[in-house]
Amino acid sequence: MRTLGLDDVTFWYPATANPALENITLDVGPGDIVALVGRGGAGASTLLLVAAGLAPRVTGGRLAGTVSRGARAGIVLPTPWTQLSGMAFTVWDEVAFGPANLGWPGHAISRHVDHALERLEIAPLASRDPASLSGGELQRVIIAGILAMDPDLVLLDEPTAELDPEGARAVWRLVRSLAGEGKAVLLATSDVDALPDVADRIVWLEQGSVRAMGEPSLLAEDALCEAGLGTTVAGLWRAAALPAPYPLTVVDAVQRWR
Amino acid sequence: MSVRLLALIPVTVAISLALSAAVDAVALPLFLDTTGTILATALAGPVVGIAVGVLTSAVNTLRNPTFWPFVVVQIIVALYAGFAARAGLFRSLKTAVPTGLGLGVLASLTSTPISYFVFGCTTTGGIALTTALGRALGLPPLGACFFGSFVSDFGDKAVTFALVAAVLHALPRRTAARFPLALRAMGAT
Amino acid sequence: MSALHPFSLLAIAAALPAFAWILPAPGGGLATATLALALALVPDVRAGARVVRVAVLTAAPFWLFLLLLHDLPTTVAMGLRITTMVASFVWLVAALPPDRLVEAMVARGWSLTLAYLFAATLSAVPVLKARAQRIVEAQRCRGLSPRGSVANRLRALRALALPLVLSALHEVDERAFALETRGMGSGVHRTPLAAPPDRPLERAARWALLLLCLAAVIWRLA
After folding, report:
1. CA of C110: how far to CAs of C60, C103, C116, C132, in Å?
2. Which of A16, B79, B162, C192 is the most exposed place for a label (fewest CB within 10 A)?
């Protein structure tokens, strides 16, 4: 049973000859955390848009292949300030924007919003004006706004981009707890070091197609490290010309040393 | 209305209002307050342009209530830009600038009666002074008023049209292709 | 004042200038202008004084130029009308926070589209203005100055305006995605979050005000 299934999906943006995604086949089930890694322009953001049902519906363009989605999806994009509704003058109202649009009754909205604010640890910000928040605070507000809609498929594009290390750790904890609740999570990130503890599967995208797919140990493989996408530890080990296989995390490295 | 157009409108209104900072920095006597209206029309048609024009007037009104009667001018601008876009007149500066000059004439023809009957031609200091000049030159009151607003509108609309044409041509093709009218306005289809 | 429904506040702010133009000058204009300025002072005199000051400062240039161009009776008649318009709007902006108006629109079942356009525009303006200011400052560091030939200044204007407009347009896509994913355009009736209460008496008063305006127009034309 899968929450999201992409079968041999190829996608072209409007008025472009080269496809942004080519022959992508990917399944994400409930409780899975799948991470997309790749260089800029590799197609991770486009893939998330396809998964969210926004491409080609809102982007225009052409899609070949099938996308099956069993449930409601919510996507968090990288730049927080463009995702503000513009209709809310407090953080509480901003987070409530999505649930209100779904037509939920007032008490359900309150419950979901308060819960989302707590999970993102931004309850003290509830009556602040979103325009006055820092980038990191805003990113958490946007994530809360998506979570308050209770999506079964959570799509995150660079969720920790604006956050300091403490904030980033909190988000990764949140991602794990979302999966624990049975939600399916598909995310794109350049914060590769966090992935061994978070992701169940890694997908390496290059120029719109899947170059490799597998367990997080993929992040210590030579090819990935050469592309600059491996974990810091693996990269350092490789740069120091120490023998393969490279360790994935600090713990692994320490073990190898012994 | 598609969500993309819904997202476009507030942004283009804000563009019209934000350009005043650029105009001040180069010390040119321009308003550029119809930039968003014309741009939105060239991208998505006159209906969207009218919405942008009305909203631009509304936000200006919040700052200074005397802007509201001139919402009619914004609507006329959107309609004119719609014809210009359908005719592909944004395809180069050579076609855009004269089209803008034409709008300058139309815009001052539209704003003159409003300025005259509602404000007695005192809409801005510049217009009041040029009106006084026109009167001194022997023009009748309405004519002097037209003279006042024409002088500022003429250049303003030509520059605005040129700017919008420049923006359209600077857009990456795949972005322009997503807006219904953009390619046709550029003469690119 | 804050106890009144947003639509009532709108009705008053629209009716006063209408009456200023419909009723014969200068008495009509004087009455409405005085009323508009007095309204500002009603709940809180100190905050009201600020409103009155803004209104007077905004209207003053018009009086000046009117004196320059017209004779005294015309100046007084037009000046009072303009003052009424200015005063009622400045009062409205001070008395009605935008979010209350937005929620009133949504609660009344006005299209979510309209409410969104209004609110999102108000939010977008300061953001783009700030960005424009940053671009101007960056260019100043590179030697931009308000001197030089008109052609040079037009080129400089282009260099300032183009990045602002292009980056704003690029964001339109992301905004559209965000709106979609948060349920706008779904066609479902949105739950109003904090609908302001509307008393039947207020609603009746608004209709009465409209009828009074129409009656005044008819009386004036007859």
Report:
1. 37, 10, 11, 33
2. A16
